[in-house]
Amino acid sequence: MPQLWEQTALYQKRPDLCRRNRQHILPIPLSLKGYQILIIKPDVFVSTREAFANIHPHHPEYSIKEAIKRPVNEWKEILINDFEDSVFPSIR
After folding, report:
1. Is this prediction's pTM over 0.90?
2. Distance between terminal CA atoms of the chain?
3. pLDDT tens track for 16-70
């Protein structure tokens, strides 16, 4: 089974990839200078149980480490959050 990676907190000065609840932290050479991050929190509640019950993990063409080396304008198509379809099925 592939290792699961998660993004670290956005308030950090440098980006990292983390594995196993921050037990293994891998700094990544990535600059988002000139970009803005917009976080939108929709008024939607889904229990953790329901979210996990409906998730269908896929096997991406690129790992996160490989995907972030590609141009930012490609990220939307290659960095996929498997929870999106579970939590927001009608949006995609």
Report:
1. no
2. 26
3. 787 766 667 788 888 888 888 888 888 888 888 988 888 888 888 888 888 988 9
56-92 confidence digits (pLDDT tens): 888 888 888 889 889 999 998 998 888 888 888 755 5
- The rounded distance, in Å, linking the Cα atoms of 59 and 50 is 21
Q: Which residues does 42 contact at the CB level (< 8 Å), separation at least 6?
A: 88
Q: Write out the two tokens for 57.
A: 């993990």
* Per-residue tokens: 4: 């699961």
Q: 70: which 2 tokens?
A: 């590609």
Residue 46's contacts (CB-CB under 8 Å, 6 or more residues apart) are 86, 87
Angle at CA 78, nearest 5°, toward 73 and 22?
A: 105
Q: CA–CA separation, 6 vs 17, rounded Å?
A: 6
DSSP bridge pairs for 5: 19
